[in-house]
Amino acid sequence: MDKIIHIPGFNLKITRRLIVDLSLHFFTTLLAAYLFYSITNNIIWVILVFVGGILIDTDHFIDYFLHLDKWDIHSFLHGHFIASRKLYLIFHAWELVLIIAISSLIFSFLIPLWVGMMIHLIIDSLMHARTTPLKYFILFRWKHNFCFDKFDYYFYKKQMKNLRNAGLLKEDEKVEE
Ligand SMILES: [Zn+2]
Q1: CA of 119 to the centre of ligand 1 (A)
Q2: Which H or E run contains 114?
Q3: 85: left (phi over 0), alpha (psi -120 to 50) or beta
Q4: Where are any strands of DSSP class E within the chain?
Q5: How far is CA 60 from CA 55, 64, 78, 80, 90, in A?
Q6: Interval between CA 121 and ligand 1 midpoint (Å)
């Protein structure tokens, strides 16, 4: 699953897992957008389902810049920021989905945002939280002080291995086997 792929025409290597991940998010969100548009004919609903289904991942940028001060697409795509051992992912939170779902009972325009986020988190949970089902609860991560190696050691080690294979780890960032 974690085979490194060279992107043809670019000086870029990413893991097969990332390609599967991004494609799943894109196509499920597209399907939800299509369904919402055919029901409501409202472009705002399409935009909001994309905000929930795709832009939720912008919190990776926050984690990236908390650890690294220079932008590098290669580092970003490999999740170099996890070398800091911290993983906040503030938008990846079932608590947030619940709050938006309850709010959508009053503000119906929040329904596509809620559905988009829910689909995204279901996919992320199936792909990345099989060993730690509570991973996408922000209270659970907070309880572990947002330390990735504490709340999901299995995935932390796996991603550190990917970083090492991509040649992105400095000596002092290496993990013991
Ligand atoms: Zn995600």
Answers
A1: 10
A2: helix 111-128
A3: left
A4: 4-7, 12-15
A5: 10, 6, 11, 10, 9
A6: 7
Residues of the chain with confidence (pLDDT) below 70: 1-2, 5, 7-14, 171-177
Distance (angstroms) between ligand 1 centre and the Cα of 28 equals 13
How far, in Å, is the centroid of ligand 1 from the Cα of 168? Answer: 22
137 CA from centroid of ligand 1 (Å): 13
| Contact predicate 159/82, CB 8 Å | yes
DSSP state of 13: E
Compute the distance from residue 154 Cα to the ligand 1 centre, in Å: 18
Domain coordinates of the chain in residue numbers? 4-169
Distance 130 CA to ligand 1 centre (A): 14
Q: How many angstroms does the Cα of residue 132 sit away from the middle of ligand 1? A: 15
**pLDDT tens digits, 103-147:** 999 999 999 999 999 999 999 999 989 889 999 999 999 999 999
Residue in this structure with the two tokens 């559905």, named with its chain if needed: 115
